[in-house]
Amino acid sequence: MLIVPAENTINWKRPPWVTLSLMLACFLVFVFYQSDDDRVAEEVLETYLESGLLELEAPVYENYLQRQIGIENASEMTERLELFQLAMKRQDELSQAGMMAFDIEFYLYMQDNQEILWPTSERKQWRGEREPIHDLMLELSSFRAGLVPAEMAPSTLITYQFLHGGWGHLIGNMVFLFLLGFTVEKALGVGRYLIAYLLCGVVSGLVFSAFSTGSSIPLVGASGSIAGLMGMYVAIYGRQTIRFFGFFWVYFNYFRAPALAMLPVWLGKEIYDHFFAGATGVAYMAHAGGLVAGAGVILLLGRSWFQVKASFYEPEPEQQDQRFTTSYAQAMASLGRMDFDLARRQFEALRERYPDRLVLLEHLYHIAKLRPDLVAYRDRTRELMAEALGQKLTERMTEVWQEYLGKGEAHHPLAAEDHNRVLFASLRSDHLKQAEKAFERLRATGDPVLVAEACQLLADEFDKRQMSPKARYYKQILSGAAPV
């Protein structure tokens, strides 16, 4: 059974740099730091086969497995015993050597019980040949930087997260790291995401160690941290219904469910597999620990240290464009049916969500223009003039102003500031006649301060152009319009 969240798609305009960096780090560690593991493993096997340890340890190993069947996981030990007995029957020395040479628990068992396993001469031979092989095996990256519960060092709670047991292990983990990581990184932001990821790995390692107390088998891999991402993912969405991809034996498909409903399903599966799956080599309790840690990070600290960014819940630009296009088409359809009241409400709702789209204000302006006797027409005119000026669309601003003078000024006159704005814009664009027209409208409002300022501005402008009669005209007005 496999269930993976599939609610989001990645936006490559804003790549998940931390997720990609974590993937690169795991890849580089595997390729370079762990590159010597194959040579060490081959040397361990060669040295073991060249020694006389195979005949000395094989009977002991068979007996050891039989004893462990009644103590530990019976299915796991039974499977291992069957494989070993099959190798003995086929006289497959390489398989026998591989099982015994790398079984650290078996080595510790022999070390503790050597006095009762062999007589003095064989015991001396065993120590002389086995200890160098054991020391050589400890040069493997999994023992140097992996998490060994029996000898846990704080640093290995971090380093084990970047080690992997093979290409299949690495690629599988990196696929899930990418699928989950880009969403959680977007939700938490770069710094908090990295801290949460590593923290989940630490908790995952501690839970694994608690259920493997005294074990000398090292834990490696990013799967505990990735399980933490799964826990964070569903906790971020909480009770919201989101999309998942499910694979059940031969059936696979997408389905929708409340996000948090998947947490007990995943957790129950890991705990069940820990007790009943047998010898799979998978650290199920590490996964369970990561899931709980990830969900806890968001559910317990989501309003403080690990608060989800508000922008995470906003749709991506592509989704916004799609939603805008759909809603805009509905509003235009209402216009086509001449249902102007409904169209107005639709355009107003769109403008609340997309305030920067001038086309929406244009439509609202034209709808208001159908009733020039209402104050709404003046308000939309002033709003469109200000928006057009802000976007440096001076010609559009003056067009709207002139249109209002012909249609709505008689009903609800514009304020002095509106005419003054047109006057300034006209002067900047070198439209003197329009500036003078705006001045006359401004003068009619009776605002002495703005009229005086406009007079001075026009007089100075005509002086610069050596148009003395015009300059003198505005100076005369200024002398009579200026406040006492």
In brief:
GO terms for molecular function: serine-type endopeptidase activity. The protein has 484 residues and is mainly α. Helices cover 70% and strands 4% of the residues.
Written account of the structure:
This protein has 484 residues and is mainly alpha-helical. Among the domains are: 2-32 and 154-312, Rhomboid-like (Rhomboid-like fold, Up-down Bundle), CATH 1.20.1540; 37-138, no CATH class. Helix content is 70%, strand content 4%. It contains 23 helices and three strands. A three-stranded antiparallel sheet has the order 1-2-3, covered by helices on one side. β2 and β3 form a beta hairpin. α10 runs parallel beside α12 (223-237), α13 runs antiparallel to α14 and α21 (432-445) runs antiparallel to α22 (448-464). The longest helix has 22 residues, at 167-188. Keywords: Hydrolase, Membrane, Protease, Transmembrane, Transmembrane helix. Residues 156-303 form the Peptidase S54 rhomboid domain. GO terms for molecular function: serine-type endopeptidase activity.
